[in-house]
Every structure is written in C-alpha cells, then in structure tokens.
Amino acid sequence: PDLDTLIPRIAAEKNDSTRFYLALSGLTVSETNPVLDMNNAERILIHAQKNNDVVCEVLGLGCLGYDYRAFGNTAKSLEYNLKTNAVAERSKDPRLLSLGKLLLSMSYLDLEDYPKAISYGLASLEAAEKVEENIFTIMGNQTLGEIYLKLNKVDSALIYTQKAYQLCMKSGIKEYLGAVYGQLGSIHVLMQNKPLAIGYFNLALDEALKINSPKYISISLYTIDDFYYKNKQRDSALLYSKKAITAVQNTAFSTLSILPSKLLQDIYRDSNIDSAFKYSEMHRIANDSLYNIKALQQAQLMTFEEDARQQELAVKEA
User: Are the CB atoms for 252 and 35 separated by under 8 Å?
Assistant: First the structure.
C-alpha cells in the first residue's frame, strides 16, 4: 500500500490490534523488494517516534532487523532485533512480544547460539498463543524446526516443521509455505527419503513462483541443484545452479548467487577451465557486492538515525 495514504490511517486508529495490522500491511514486501520494505519501515518508525506509538515502533524496528538479515548483515540485524525486543518487553503486549522473541531466535540461529535460539523461539510461541497469532506461530515453528535441523535432531525438526505446515494450511497464510516445504525436503534428505525430499523441494519452488519472490525462487532452485550435486547428477545440478543465478540477477537479492556460482565453479574445475573461471569471477563479484551493500546500508543507516534524532528533538521542543 501507499505509505502516504496508510500513515494517516494508522495515526487515526486507536485500537492497538487494528493499528498493528494496518502498519503490518505496509511491511509485506520483504521477500520481494527488501529495499522498499526498509524504506517503509523507516517511515513507520519515524511516525512511531513522533507519536509515541509503541506498536509501530516495534514493527518498524523489527522489520529493519528482518531486512538486514535478508542482506546478510547479521550484526545490524541483531542490533535492531534487540531494540525490538526491549520495546516489546516494556509494552507487555503478547503480540509484540511474540515478534520480538521470534526475531531474536532468528538472530541467534544465524550466530549458531542454538540454546538461546531455542529459548527465544519457545518464548515467542508462548506469547503468540495468547493472541492466536498465526503469522508468528507459523514463523516460530518453522524457525524452531530449522534450529533443530541444524542440530541434526531430525525428530524435533520434523515435529515443529509439520506444525508450521499445518498452521499454513489451516490459516490460509501461505507466504512461508515454500520455506516450510524446503525445510521438510531437507529433513527427508537426512532421513534418507530421497524421492520424498525432491518432491518437497519441487513444492517449495512452486510456492516461490506463486508469490513471485526472487529470494525464495533462487533458494529453492539452489536447494534442488545441491541435492542433485550430492547425488552425482551433474547435468541436473548444472541446470538448476544456472537457474538459481538467473532468478536473482538484477534484483536486490543478487548476492544469493554466491552459493550456486560456487557450486558451478566446483563442478567445472576439473572439466572446463573457462567455465570454472567464469563462475569463480561471478562468485567473487557477488561477494564484493555483499560487502558493498553492507557499506551502503551502513551509510543509509547513519543518515536515517540522524533524521530520527532530529525528529525526536523536534518532538521534544514542541
């Protein structure tokens, strides 16, 4: 939605629950256009600071933390997620608490601090259950499934991921269904159920195409090509690796080409020196782009923080 139209509606709304969903409706493009999403989050956060709106403050901070994670900036993501959780704790609102705890669970998953990731994940689900928050219960169960998958605890991973799937189907909220299918595929790889695994990987790709997310399309294609590579199906691995790169070319998610280009480099190393060099260069450029994106984000962040500080000063003076 147009933020110029949405923000006055948010400002006029007195009900916290309704205001929560109004603000959230402006922050739904993270998986397709994270640059726009960050801009929207900054505008909602500035509105929150000017109007002392805790609901919008948590959503603005949390969305920035989530988007920094999408760009691979783990430190900035954690910084914003800690701020999100601190404001949510002061509010004592279970809906906001479920978001704050969920984002910290994701941060500690990225940092491989799995005990903390599990603790915050469980706390998120506990808070979400008080408001029957389907969005965060889906994401919370999926995140816990991912954590246990990293720990190679397949039974626990399967329990939480299946719960996420059931909630997707029951609620009709299917934005994260592709990620859930991909996770189920990875679980069945570990369980040696290869036909079932590739079936889930293909379902994940179908869902990514439905929501037209370059991020999830590329991730799904890379998951498939990695599966074929490990099963020594070289031609299929080549095909899906190239598709994974094409899916994110000229998008905000172009750095996702790092993994498939590295796989192509490995495939061609012993058979085609020219192709190996080509994908080695692509891998290097994607890495450099990731570094440059982080530097640009840092500059944008400092500008945003100064704008926010000036807004706070203006509010205090008024």
Answer: yes
**How far, in Å, CA of 76 to CA of 72, rounded?**
9
Q: Average pLDDT over the chain, rounded to whole?
A: 85
Contact 176, 142 (CB under 8 A): yes
Distance CA 158, CA 310 (A): 49
Task: Tell me the C-alpha to C-alpha distance, in Å, between residue 314 and each of 55, 61, 218, 300, 301.
Answer: 21, 20, 44, 21, 20
d(CA 116, CA 143): 13
Is the torsion defined by CA of 153, 77, 140, 287 positive or negative? negative
Q: CA angle, 170 as apex, 19 and 219 as ends, to 5°?
A: 85
The predicted pLDDT at position 277 comes to 40
Dihedral in degrees, nearest 10, Cα atoms 60, 305, 107, 186: 70
The percent of residues in the chain predicted with pLDDT above 70, rounded, is 84
If you average pLDDT over residues 269-279, what whole number do you get? Answer: 54
